[in-house]
Write a structure and sequence with these properties.
Number of strands of chain B: 11
Number of helices of chain A: 0
Mean pLDDT of chain A: 94
Structural class of chain B: mainly beta
Shape of chain B: globular
Shape of chain A: globular
Strand content of chain B: over 45%
Helix content of chain A: under 10%
Order of helices and strands of chain B: EEEEEEEEEEE
Oligomer: heterodimer
Amino acid sequence: GNSVTQMEGPVTLSEEAFLTINCTYTATGYPSLFWYVQYPGEGLQLLLKATKADDKGSNKGFEATYRKETTSFHLEKGSVQVSDSAVYFCALSPWGAQKLVFGQGTRLTINP
Amino acid sequence: DTGVSQDPRHKITKRGQNVTFRCDPISEHNRLYWYRQTLGQGPEFLTYFQNEAQLEKSRLLSDRFSAERPKGSFSTLEIQRTEQGDSAMYLCASSPGASSGHRGSVYEQYFGPGTRLTVT
């Protein structure tokens, strides 16, 4: 079946620290991969995506690379800000399907 | 240009009552999705429409749940005989179709703010 496993949270970092949130997946075929973010009091927003192996998605200083050999899509940012505090969800869309399969989410808190 | 809207934002109901939620997708998006999110978990897929056709339903969608999209625009999700286990955030999302040529990637789903259901 299709599933996503995320690094367990919550994660607390100081401002300007380096961030990694791990995400691995299980899927048949060639899924598309996504990171969604949910800021406090707001709806889910797409942060970045990658649709094929070795693609790198990037947005707002965040990056993630689609690694087929390790079935991973880890989220990274070189220097986090207080405004990055949110819940981050890794997700996949199975090949040929329209639905998203989400991980359980990782709550990130950045302290000034 | 408005995003996906959902109504109501909050609903408190007693066990056994029926509830109905509405979702208005982004204009001209022909794909519409419903998800359910419980506290501390990621959203779980419930069902998907392309225009007015319901093309996929999750096993999570029991017989008490029904979704419609009668004219291929807004959608409703009804839960009959609610149970306490139905308490969750119900999310709606929309996306353009592959042939629509409209704004946004065919892969990106745009989410609404959700309807929080509490069953007492």
